[in-house]
Amino acid sequence: MLKLEQVSVRYGATLGVDRITLEVHEGELVVLIGANGAGKSTTLRAISGLEPLTTGSIHFDGYRISGALPAQIIDRGIAHCPEGRRVFPQLTVRENLEMGGYRRSDRQRMRQDMERLFDKFPRLRERAGQAAGTLSGGEQQMLAIARALMSRPRLVMFDEPSLGLAPNFVEMIFELVQEVRREGTTVLMVEQNAYAALQMCDRAYLLTNGRIVRQGTGAEMLADEGVRAAYLGG
Ligand code: ATP
Fold first, then answer.
1. Cβ of residue 63 lying under 6 Å from some atom of ligand 1
2. Using a 6 Å cutoff on CB, does residue 82 contact ligand 1?
3. Is the ipTM of this complex over 0.90?
4. Which of the residues 22, 45, 98, 135 could staple to 139 if both were Cys, CB 3.0 to 4.6 A apart?
């Protein structure tokens, strides 16, 4: 479904990612793990069209999307839930959700989708008219996830969805991510919490200094000595 081949992104003198090749198949939950600065966010940003490639190509459903505009990539069916949530703090919860569907013209179905999301996230319904900036961190993360789903993506990318959340919220967010996948949306997720991420994923890639150094199923990665030593406390 999604295929990156030899993708590099350069920030001035720094290589954000260095000739990475990876694939996500329809229906999978794939995870990218690695230390801070390894290139995980850059990978997601490149897929979304937010960073130009210096080498390589990205295809989605057989179409080349590298070089396309972010809005065109959304239209192809890819949504991005960025690191740090990035909800619009002055806008209400409802307005934030509307922004997630800004490329859609089917207003009626959008309203139905919003109702369905409110059923899934009752806390957001309770706070629908409230400015997003007044929500707790966990609620903002729920909103960011719901906003991404408002574009009806076939592939959704989550960047560090558990970052900075209290443990009970972390569990809830991971449960949500798995539910999104069970409902048929393919997921590509970046996560610092490697143990939890590897347990829930189908496959994972380990990035170090912008390069993919290991890949395998979640179980293989959990059993890998290198992964264990660096990310799972040995
Ligand atoms: P983190 O979890 O800290 O976000 P990451 O694995 O997502 O880490 P990236 O944010 O993708 O890593 O960063 C990869 C490399 O690119 C790092 O060396 C980083 O300093 C650099 N980098 C990222 N964004 C920029 C930018 N806008 N300008 C310059 N360098 C950048």
1. no
2. no
3. yes
4. 135
